[in-house]
Amino acid sequence: MNRTTLSLIAGTTALAAVTGFAALSQPDAPGTDTAKAAAQLPVERTSLLCPAPSTSDLAETSYTSFTPVTKGTGSGGKAELREAVAESAGAPAAGEDKGKGEDDGKSGEDKPAKPVLTPKEPGKPVTGDSSGGDAPALVGTADGRFAPGWTVQETTEVAAGTGRGLQGVNCTAPDTDFWFPGASTDTDRTDYVHLTNPDDSAAVVDLELYGKDGALKSAVGEGITVPPHSSEPVLLSTLTDERQTDLTVHVNVRSGRVGAAVQALDDKIGGDWLPASTDPSGSLVLPGIPKDATSVRLVAFTPGDADADLKVRLASPSGPITPAGHETVHVKGGMTTAVDLGDVTRGEAGSLVLTPTDRSVPVVAALKVVRGKGDKQETAFIPATRPVGTRATSAGNSGKGGTLSLTAPAAAATVKVTASAGSEGGTPVSKTYTIKAGTTQDIEPPVPGGLKGTYALTVEPVSGGPVHGARTLAANEGGVPAFTVQTLPDDRGTVAVPEADEDLSVLQK
């Protein structure tokens, strides 16, 4: 074996350990021999992107950065969030002239990249705050012991106006493909898709919109350029003249990679971030519907030409329930389908489980959830999400107003939930919970002893079947039941790295 071959093997192994691609870390990936030979190693480097939180002068935003302690990471490394240095002019407020502010003589590229959050050690959260509508998008990297499971939560309170209430989002890893069922260009909605580019070269993105009758024509959405280290908010209503209550947005990256999230703001019933649905799949789980939800709307889309017929089940605390009148849902190929499920939880914890009635057709889905009544309503979104996997991490918990929702759709499972130390003091606490098959359990998260500041939660399956989870933050703001829900997929802390078939300890010329 020559040096070139050895270099290729070493390079492939290093790339896997650095990037932690999801396909490499799946425990059920095809190829039994490879799985047996693979070792689960901590990722060595990762990146996260946080969208610009708000254009409202009344916005108050908090950030929490957290890395769980992971064995085998060594003592070096760092994590850091910085402003997107080439930040564009930003999204205008609803009804504001889009060109306003473009000729103020201040180029975004002239602004220095300021560090916003720099954690000191794994296992202890670090927090930061910003006020007003000028907070930029953030680009973050973590390496060494700070990389495995690195999580950043962005939470914004908006006191009044379009989108008022509580808005929260997990900062996302860059990728090349995103699906957002649940967006809208309705009269009361102002929806932006935020595209953030972490790299040194420009990214080129196509935005595809699908309504109830299929694809919407939009030449404006093709070939959108996102400059290096910058963020571009794109107002969906500028891409089409059609008013659609329910849309599916497909973010397809032609070159480069971006982080993507949809900010869905409503004039009457608040708003929140709409994260991407998990990859198209025949079966989906949408966890963490609040027990006091007054309205739940399912939005689903299948990317192919074939129609999908899905069974609809609610995983309740006592077991699976079929919603009356909504036993199944038919999703036409290439068309967005929406179904009003009403107050489907009937005062109990719940998660929606979608499974094929016959053949499996890949589908993406999300829920629009409303709490409150009349002019005191607030909105949040729950996308279909992957299982917890090895470990999931949730940052930005305060010890009050939080709920952790766990569901075991197929088989009973036991999970360990750990509350980290507080950002300003406190000692970690762990508790173990058993979730029965086909049920959802809402738990009040454990709180660190002597808590000061905010803390993080980690969820680790101990035994049994797959577990899906979500964390809800809630606050009462002037009688409005403000809330935001973040799902808990695997935190990408480890990656499967195949072992070499040959002894490479001696290099041969």
Key traits:
single chain; 509 residues; mainly beta; disordered N terminus; disordered C terminus
Description:
The longest helix is centred in the N-terminal third of the chain and has 17 residues, at about 5-20. The model is unreliable at about 1-35, about 85-110 and about 500-509 (pLDDT under 50). Strands 10, 12, 13, 14 and 16 form a 5-stranded antiparallel β-sheet that branches. Strands 19, 21, 22, 23 and 25 form a 5-stranded antiparallel β-sheet that branches. The chain has a 4-stranded antiparallel β-sheet with strand order 2-7-4-5. The chain starts with a helix and ends in an 11-residue tail after the last strand. The chain is globular. A hairpin with a 6-residue loop joins strand 26 (about 365-370) and strand 27 (about 380-385). It is mainly β and about 500 residues long.
Largest sheet: 5 strands, antiparallel
Quote the distance from N terminus to C terminus. Answer: 8 Å
Structural class label: mainly beta
Tally of separate helices: 3
Question: Which percent bin holds the helix content?
Answer: under 10%
State the shape: globular
Short description:
By secondary structure, the chain is mostly beta strands.
